[in-house]
Every structure is written in C-alpha cells, then in structure tokens.
Amino acid sequence: MIVDVHAHLTDEQFDADRSEIAEGLKQNGVKWIITNGYDRKSCFLAVILAGWYKNIYAAVGMHPESAGDYDAVFEDNLKEYCANEKVLAIGEIGLDYHYDTNPPRKTQRETFVKQLILAEKLDKPVIVHSRDAAQDTFDILRDNMPSRGAVLHSFSQSEEMTKRYLELNVMFSFSGVVTFKNASNVKLSAGLIPPERILTETDCPYMAPEPFRGKRCCPAYAANTAAVLSEIKGIDYAEFCELTVANAERFFKVIPKEEKKKKGGRFWGV
Ligand SMILES: [Zn+2]
Asked: What are the boundaries of each domain within the chain?
C-alpha cells in the first residue's frame, strides 16, 4: 500500500469517474490520500469529499495563482474547515513566479505568510507549492515555519537547495516528475534525503509518472513514483512503501482506526 499526499480529486477531469476512483483506492493499493484545495471552491469541495470517504483527507489553502483572492472571509472559512479532523493541513500554498499573469509577487508573499501564521495558530502543517521561486520560498519558510512543519510538494529543487532544506522542519514529497527521463537533477536531490523524510504524491490529474506521462494521472500512480524512489534509495520496494506510509501517518498525525477506537474517538480513521 502507498499513500498520495497531494491529489486534486476535486478537479473537473475527475467529474466522470470521481466516485469510482474514490471507492477503488484500496483495491488499487492506495491506503489513503489527501485531496488539496487551491481556491474557495476546491477547498469547499475537498472538505465535502473528505467527509464522504474515510480514506480521503483534505488540505485547504489559497494557491499562489489565486493569492489576490485571499481575504478575511476565506481565512474564516479555513478556520472552520480546520476544525474538522479530516482536514490535515493548510495547503496548497506557496509561491509561483512562472507566469507573468500570476498575481504580483508581493501579493503572493503576503498571502503565503498569512497562511503560515494561520497554520501555526491552528496547529496544522502546511503543503507548499514553489515554482521559479526557490529563494523566496526558502526565506519565507525559514522565517515563518509552523511548529508542525511543511511538506515541499512535487519536490524538484537543486541539490544545493535540498541541502539547505534539510536544515528546516520539512518533508520532501515526490510526484511523477522524479520518474521522468530528463529529471536527473531531481533524482540526485532525492538521493540526498533520508528515507524517513520522503513522502509520495501524484499531484493528479497532473504530472503522471512514467510510463503514463502526458496522460491523466490518478492516485494509484503514486506506486510508479515510489518504485523509482525505492531504486534511488536502494531500499526494497515493499519496505519503501511501508516506510513512506509511516512517514505520512506520523507527519500528518493520521491515527489508525484501532487506536482511535481505543481512545473512544469518532470513527474517521483509515
Ligand atoms: Zn497541486
């Protein structure tokens, strides 16, 4: 079994078969997933989905591409969402300097910091998107890291940045990018990271790993990414999967249902 800590099951590309995918997770070797919101609507839908399926969790936050939309009302929404125990993190949040049409960098930085401060207040970790903004992302995270830490989603940074990030309270989450033939730099970065700090994700419907590159991605493909990572780390595949599931459950505080029952908590576990 594997986990997918970064899916977008609310995406319209899943409109035709979302329930099939959600119900089929276990049969397809996926223990649980986190579906990540990125704007008002997707956050709302992510929380709904997490309520419907016991092995789907949610993360909620304003993506940098919508950074200008962050306001007091949305912040209140985030607080309400985070009171739900199926909401595991604030995300995805971060910086994206790739397109000139994205919100101004200053707006992105302000929205990112606001959500990091909120995560600390709500005792949640964060899931971070960073594109063409390596230095600013690092600086902001270093100065505003929530106590619960951060996940660097679809990690694809240089060896030098990886070494610097190893000093911070972060987990490194790999998507299909690490399987691409032209991603030797990402493979080298992965080689530097201790196995107990590695997570698996898909970023589905995007970023399908080899041999599905270019097709619509789905949570089960996290297995293809895990296979490549286990090779890089020189760890047996099954052992590697077990390890990354344990990493994710420890980091996000996903409590297996037996333990929950013992504590008399509500049944939400996987
Ligand atoms: Zn994403």
From this structure: 2-263
